[in-house]
Amino acid sequence: MLLVGIDWADDHHDICFVDETCQDPSSILDRFRISHSALGFEQLHEKFREREAAPDQICVAIETPHGLLVHDLIRYGCCVYAINPKSVSRYRDRHTPSAAKDDGRDALALAHLLRTDRHRYSPLEMLPEDYRLLDEYCRDLRQMIEDRTRILNRLISSLKEYYPQAVHLFNRPDSVIAQAFLRAFPEPASLRTLTKKRFVAFLQKHHYPCPKRTDDLYAAVKAPAPVADTVVTQASKSRMLVLLDQIATLQTHIQDYERRIRSLFKKLPGSQDLSNMPGVGERVGPELAAALGPKPDGEPKRFTSPSALMRLGGSAPITKQSGRYKHVNFRRACDKRLRSTLHDWAKASLNTSSWARAYYDYHKAQGHRHNTILRNLACKLLAILHRLWRTGEKYDELKHIDNLKSRKVTWALQL
């Protein structure tokens, strides 16, 4: 077995080879550096061939699960382990308490970490293309939504500086009707000659869904408001129009990504069963499917227990205990995107599941915090999801409630 440690960088990679039978941490088979290029990757392949090592007999440790080099190693057939940089740092300190550090030393630490602690880590596994593509789409969509929120906050801030009556005129400043209003009347001065007849015609043209509010809206438009400085008005107006263009562009791409995700999600086996889970909608379902991957044949290899999913998503807490001291901490080292998905899922389940609502209300009455309850609720939902994913069963709300009552769970007895 050839053990390889790779210190990852943007333009080069330090690499160290050791043998699994090596007992001296300072003894190495080879040490070299390659460039981050096709030529460098081929140089690494040549080094493998010189050692006459079959690809399935090569174990590689690297500090990232992504990137061109990682994909190249997996395609070559190596068994790749993505090791958290904090674990590498603490392993290195076992042999160098002075905290001396360089790229070559990190590569050596990674190689020896495989030799002594490989059983504690799981190798990377390439999911089918549909699942990986769905995961990339979901990640980009969530990022675009966050970008839209950030731009919307800037838009609201800009309107407050010179156009306060437009901030709360409609439900959201980025809605279709609100964007049309801001483009048609980009500054307070443009409202001076606005008659009620023109305003009603504007609302009808843009299919405003609440005609009963027309009088209230017109009164709000015509109500006296503070007047901003001329310079502030001109600058804020230009900024507002730029932000509207950015929001409109993002909204178009968001809708396109949502269509792609829906189409891809429907093609996945078991997507309908996943959609039947409480709180799983068009946004949460694809993200959960991308995180889980295809249903396993037999016992799962990726997530052998629900606790593995809970730790990955950050819903499982961390306990620190020593003697009579015991403290439960919030888990910070996790997949932040999956954590957001689980939070959204738990929150949405309150509106569709009677037992989830009963669980939330009971613990809220006990004085527990909102986010803590949602994290604990996410753990329960993950336990159900993992069982269904592993066994292929379908979710049954009434069956789950009966199980809770049979176990005499306090908060479920009134359901």
Description:
The chain is α/β, with parallel strands linked by helices and 415 residues long. It folds into 3 domains: 2-120, Nucleotidyltransferase, domain 5 (2-Layer Sandwich); 132-264, Helix Hairpins (Orthogonal Bundle), CATH 1.10.287; 273-320 and 333-412, no CATH class. It is built from 16 helices and 7 strands. The chain has helices spanning 38-50, 68-76, 85-95, 103-117, 129-162, 176-184, 196-205, 214-222, 230-267, 271-275, 284-292, 306-313, 336-349, 354-365, 370-391, 397-406, and strands at residues 2-7, 12-19, 30-35, 58-62, 79-82, 318-322, 325-329. It has a 5-stranded mixed β-sheet. A two-stranded antiparallel sheet has the order 6-7. Strand 6 and strand 7 (325-329) form a beta hairpin.
| Percent in strands | 5-15%
Highest CATH level, the class of the largest domain: Mainly Alpha
CATH architecture of the largest domain: Orthogonal Bundle
Biggest sheet statistics: 5 strands, mixed
Number of DSSP strands? Answer: 7
Q: Could you state the oligomeric state of the chains shown?
A: single chain
Number of domains: 3
Mean of all residue-level pLDDT scores: 91
Total of helices: 16
Distance between the termini: 58 Å
Helix content bin: 40-55%
Question: TL;DR of this structure?
Answer:
The chain has 415 residues and is an alpha/beta fold. It contains 16 helices and seven strands. The protein has three domains: 119 residues, Nucleotidyltransferase, domain 5, CATH 3.30.420; 133 residues, Helix Hairpins; 128 residues, no CATH class.
